[in-house]
Amino acid sequence: MALFGFGRNKDDQDKLEAGLEKTRSGFFGKISRAVAGKDTVDDEVLDDLEEALVTSDVGVKTTVDIIGRIEARVAEDKYVTTKELQALIRDEIASLLLESAPERPASFSAPLPNQPHVVMVVGVNGVGKTTSIGKIAHRYKEAGKSVLLGAADTFRAAATEQLEIWSERAGVPIVKQYQGADPAAVAFDTLARAKSTNADVVLIDTAGRLHNQVGLMNELSKVKRVMDRQVPGAPHEVLLVLDASTGQNAIRQAEAFTEAVDVTGLVLTKLDGTAKGGIVIGISNEFQIPVKYIGVGEGMRDLQVFDRAAFVHALFEGGDA
Amino acid sequence: MFESLSDKLDAALKNVKGEGRINELNIAETMREVRRALLDADVNYDVARAFTNRVKDKVTDESVLQAVSPGQQFVKAVYDELVYLLGDVHVDLNQAKRPPTVILIAGLQGSGKTTFTGKLANYLKSKGRSPMVAAADVYRPAAVDQLETLAAQVGVPVFSIRGEDGVPLNDAVEVARQAKEEARRTGRDTLIIDTAGRLHVDEAMMQEVVAIKEATEPDEILFVVDSMTGQDAVNTAKAFNDRLDVDGVVLTKLDGDTRGGAALSIRSVVEKPIKFASTGEKLDALTEFYPDRMAQRILGMGDVVSFVEKAQEQFDAEEAEKLQRKFRTQDFDLQDFYDQLQKIKNMGSLKDLLGMIPGVGKAIKEIDVDDDAFKHIEALIQSMTPYERANPQKIDGSRRRRIANGAGMQVQDVNGLLKQFREMKKMMKTMSRLSGKGRQVDLAQLTRGRGRR
Ligand SMILES: Nc1nc2c(ncn2[C@@H]2O[C@H](COP(=O)(O)OP(=O)(O)OP(=O)(O)O)[C@@H](O)[C@H]2O)c(=O)[nH]1
Ligand SMILES: [Mg+2]
Question: Where are the domains of chain B?
Fold first, then answer.
């Protein structure tokens, strides 16, 4: 529990652990079974490790990477025990996950480097952008910051209404226009309002879009560019929301969104399900983007600051293992 | 860095395609690569393993090894396995003996249920049915508003229960039950019930959807799954099926570049057919699911049938025949191009359409086919004389300047258009060559299942 540190309560920890339960029994459980009683790592164990990683959505490439490193280390030190192997795997995985950069602090109470500090939230359809914004707004507000929401999803039916309900729940103001309005104009207006009201944090919701739709990706780049004209340097953060149940396609999402809007951080949602979210390991590794928050439910409090040590710890140490 | 499943399979199968004889060595290597291609496409781990084992058994059969073109046999073995995994044949929706037919939509959060509900209503309406939709997602903020908006766009009635404050009634079972009564009372022949997204491990929510099922006795329960789902797809499909005994599966967001492993995996854990594929945010972006067509798409054989069907909605037979002739004889000029643009615009995204044509999908993968580009093309062609439209090769420098001026664009735009047009004609040449010989697309199989309805 101590590892989870500030801002988390027992509830949060239980939720994360419950969500990770499946991951653990599928992943760690298997390894411990396979290795039990052996004092060397043989091919069979590495095969099981491969299966465990691939079935956690880690992806073939990253899995091959991890296994290669482990093989290399085993070649040096021939007597690897179950315990040592587990530590080794934990090490390897942790080393692939980045920490948040100081200019984009993940802690809600940390002082923000900009005012307003503008955060744009992007992702494919249905991953949890709007919900995450509601949760993040709540957390910033709770930490004493003034928050403003921008309803720049002007496309999906009732998207603005949805964000409005979240703005009421979190008790923060919202800037909106009408369905079909130019999303760049909404973002622009939102920043103008943020300046005149001295808002600390601005969260801009955007319409979900598949990353292979060139026109829509260009539109997103434009929304981003326009903000800089209102607040130089804005948006200061671009969060890409990924659904934990997404498979290898998430890597393409990361690639395309990074190209279009320079993603600075990831939000991994729906970790309360049985999906293992192993994709973030590969993505963090390949694109050098930190995971900033995780979503563990549909409620306003169901968001946690990502902590890689805690994440890997919970993955391997918690529960019945 | 990423290739599509078909590219990867293509590469893997290159070892054995063509002239070469199959031997144990290249089988093992090819199978390893096929397996990796499947895993990269999010095919379930166990499914991928079983898949390659079955293909291996088939191709190591003596008759295959001795065959004239073992490579083709290998490809066919992979194709047959894909079709099998995708569910062999197309299955239609169930219908109630006594209306209303009740269709219950269930799935995880964000899988695309509400949009699909709107699309299904639209689809059924276009088939002459009279659907009504029910907003039984009483949890997600503004979910009811979303369905109401979609229903209004489709032009079908929507059933919801709101309190005086406008807040939806917090009882999904009651909403669904009353919706069925209302559908019967108002003589709608179909009721589609949209439900909240839920995790299969959320016991209370799973009980709720079971209660909705018991209260409304649906004729058809559809499990909606995002085609980008990874290894977890089989777990959720199994859990939903265990609780609801679903009748079919709907794959959404297939307009993305997912390699669709979920589609290949689900069948092996739940013996239920995939009935629909959802391919975009627009209300008409819904197609019936045909396993054979999907397998062909995965293998890069194109999806000729879907293309033809879409085209048929826009072109009458005679026109299509004429157009085909022009494609073949290379008589296609800018005026034809302009005329066809008007029709193609009504068919959907150009890139999607081209992707259905054998051999073309791969050729245009890297090219941006921006649908908005049409506007400029139209403007340019509009400022050309009939002579120029018929003889694009005769458009010289001064004509280009005049055309550009007329359209309010630059000379380089005219150059671009003419270049694009030349490339297009080249592509058509490839197409007619492909459909003439080479690719062995089994047309009998392609059209199997059409017109069964
Ligand atoms: N269980 C669970 N559900 C979540 C989580 N985050 C979001 N959701 C649900 O996922 C669904 C989609 O969330 P939205 O916030 O509407 O997603 P979006 O990305 O804004 O969707 P679009 O704007 O339509 O592209 C909703 O039903 C949310 O309640 C999470 O961490 N856990
Ligand atoms: Mg949204």
Answer: 5-86, 101-299, 305-436
